[in-house]
Amino acid sequence: MPSDAPRCPLDATGDELVTIFRRTFQLPRPDGSLPRTFHELEHACLDGVFTVTPPADPALAQGLFARPGRYPALVRFSGGLLPDERLPDARGMAIALSDVEGEVCEGAVPGRQDFVMVDQPTPPMRDAADALVLFRAIDGHLKPTLARMLLPGAVMPRGRPRLHYLQMMADTLRNHLKGRDLAGRTYHSVAPFALGQGAMKFQCRPDAAWRNVRGGSFAERLRKAFARGPIGFDFLIQPRQGEHELLDDGIARWTGPFTAVARLELPPQPVVADRGRDTAFTPWNALAAHRPLGELNRLRRVTYAESAARRGAARRGASQT
Fold it and tell me: What molecular functions are annotated in GO for this chain (predicted)?
């Protein structure tokens, strides 16, 4: 299993990505402050409760899921890249649990377990090398637009179509056209994490009986949903089935069943603009039993930390929220 080294072992790739992100994605706001590199657009930041019900299979009852528990949860919904939510884009859900007991990854906030997810089952890149190809292609194009994401170098580097990237773009458009509200989407880990000595992926799945709310912004639709009552998600884990399910192939979907291990409930509450502006989430705020695995997660360790540090999130104590 990969170690929890404080620096990404893919140093050259990580350093180049940090440079690209500084130059192209993390540009100053009008007031001079720096935004998140990605998922800057906030739809809502809400309080919830994450209730663990340990699975019967002892191989799955690891780490956070080994015993019953109720944890305060901060939940942020966001747009992936584009500043206008009326355009097709990935939608993110980040959960920060507090009061969690157990050994954490090196550099993680004690008592904290984050789950960072998007509404697509796979990321836009296969591995670290593929990530570098993608971000080199769009480096220097400073205005985030759909056209920017469809530049020839991103879609067909060296004349080879990136079919998985095109599929992700098609999935994004499909989700947009379906008009699902934030509470009716399934959110995925996209990368693997430890499950004790094994590995897992995870997802947050909306209630099967959820009735979609239409009309208005995502925030307005959440307000309408809260007028009906609490919003709930099931949290499920998907254990790795064997060595054939690779840790370093981001676009290969695993085939095993998902098992529900927890419930996330968001009680009716105000939806306040920019409440989560100064928060910071990272996959590396994790119990050691759920440490991030694979190349893409090791790159995320560097890039998430750099983004938070540059915008001062850690200095303001936001990583503690």
Answer: heme binding
CATH classification (class only), 11-320: mainly beta
| CB 301 within 8 Å of CB 292 | yes
Read off the tokens for 151: 């530049």
The strand pairing partners of 202, in sequence order, are 237
CA nearest to 122, candidates 178, 201, 54: 201
For residue 94, give Cα distances in angstroms to 24, 76, 99, 114. Answer: 23, 5, 17, 7
Rounded Cα–Cα distance for residues 126 and 110 (Å):
31
| Per-domain boundaries in the chain | 11-320
Mean local confidence (pLDDT), 86-103:
97
| pTM of the full structure | 0.92
319 to each of 7, 48, 70, 305, how far by Cα in Å? 19, 18, 21, 10
Q: Helices (H) and strands (E) in the chain — how many of each?
A: 7, 9
Per-residue pLDDT reduced to its tens digit, 137-172? 888 876 767 777 777 777 887 777 788 888 888 889
Distance, in Å, from the CA atom of 45 to the CA atom of 244, rounded to the nearest integer, reads 38
Q: What's 233's DSSP letter? A: E
Contacts of 63-71 with C-beta under 8 Å, sequence gap 24+, read 63/102, 63/194, 63/195, 63/196, 63/287, 63/288, 63/289, 63/290, 64/97, 64/100, 64/102, 64/113, 64/262, 64/287, 64/289, 64/290, 65/237, 65/261, 65/262, 71/97, 71/98, 71/99, 71/100, 71/113
- Whole-number Å distance between alpha carbons of 188 and 254: 12
**Gyration radius of the chain over CA positions:** 19
